[in-house]
Predict the 3D structure of the following.
Amino acid sequence: MGTISSLQMPLPPDTAWASLTTLGRRLRAKRFTAVELAEFFLDRVERHGKRLNAIVTVSDDLALRQAAEADRELAAGRDRGPLHGIPYGAKDLLATAGVPTSWGAAPLKDQMFDEDATVVHRLREAGAVLVAKLAMVEIAGGLGYDQANASFTGPGLNPWDITAWSGGSSSGSGSAVGAGVVPFAIGSETWGSIMTPAGYCGITGLRPTYGRVSRHGAMALSWSLDKLGPMTRTAADAGLVLATIAGPDPADPSASTRGYEYPAQDPLVPPFRLATLKGATDGVQPAVRENFEASLDEFRPHATITEIDLPELPFGTVASTIIDCELASAFEGLVTSGDIWEMSAPEDRIGAHAALFIPAKDYINALRIRRKIQLAMDALLAPLDAIVVPSLSTVASPLDGDFASYHARWGGGVSIGGAENAAGIPAISVPNGFGERGLPTGLKFVGRAFEENRLLAIAEKYQELTDWHQKRPKGWE
């Protein structure tokens, strides 16, 4: 729809940065219609989202139809809930009927599915309005990319500095929410793909427990590790979105039968029981360490904070072995057909070949050890509300180089990423300041399985005490 950008928008510019609750309240107060809200964000998708390489497909006709339906229903007194009439973007590994789903990969850019993914269906049933499919690293990063240009849409650009990366594999989701292009997005994580763009782009990212959200209709990188979750401006927004998309699904046998409600019926209140990891700030950038320590100081009046060690288990080896083996099964045809040579990143054209030759015993042993990891992490977290660590050891890396060289300057601290993803436990990243080159840093809370509401309560308290989540990058008005 080429005329969107020329319309005179009736909405104030701060609409782009408003919380989901604020947008819903203004919509019901008739400050604007759902169609006007959709047009506002479609305009931002065209003007800003594409500049950030964050957009694969603009679903303008669909969005305007869904918005018009929301207006009719709200006028008739049918209110589907807090997301009714609210625009959003979906990572392009979620199937959308009638709209291409590329998985970030050039040979699949015209791929179409006949039905929506369960998450997309649930958002539609809640009245949310899909304005765009969002860019991602090709095949969700499973092919082994080591630099930012790993998608046919180009490298994800960071809204705080477009010479920096937005993070992967949910690159478009991080950029789009960070620049106020969409009010919220759906991302996915197998190992770091929500936490990284959330931390780099200065937004809130919630990775739910494995099985909390159905993956039916989502690209499978690793069946036993993939998770879908919300990327938002605030922790409260993340809770609202999770409550909409969570729940059992007959189409996904791995989806948990546990119900989920937000806000929690029995809310967690301070003092929180937090723990840091020994060595978590060793080898991180100085500003990352300073911002982390300042964040702990904010919490001290509201929490007990202890220091703990991670159990001595091969977290990273287990997680990477499982991912490689399941990737090899899922994408064997991509390799054997030769389509793999059309990938954007040179290293992605060869990354899957070695995985095809991993012995079955290695995969089986990794699964056996994963059970030990799950038990060990559950025991570690049982007396706690959360483990708190820096979201990442550095700010976003520059576009013009490989990741390994940039991170090698610092070494990195003790990482919990392999442990938390191998165990399938939830985490949330929230912005907590700025570091090198004026780029955001993040604070991460990791919790026990199915205790997302504990993490949300802690993150909400932090956002009540600070205003980092209200900061806006310049140039995206």
The radius of gyration is 21 Å. The chain has one domain: 19-470. The chain has 14 helices and 13 strands. Confidence is low (pLDDT under 50) at residues 1-8.
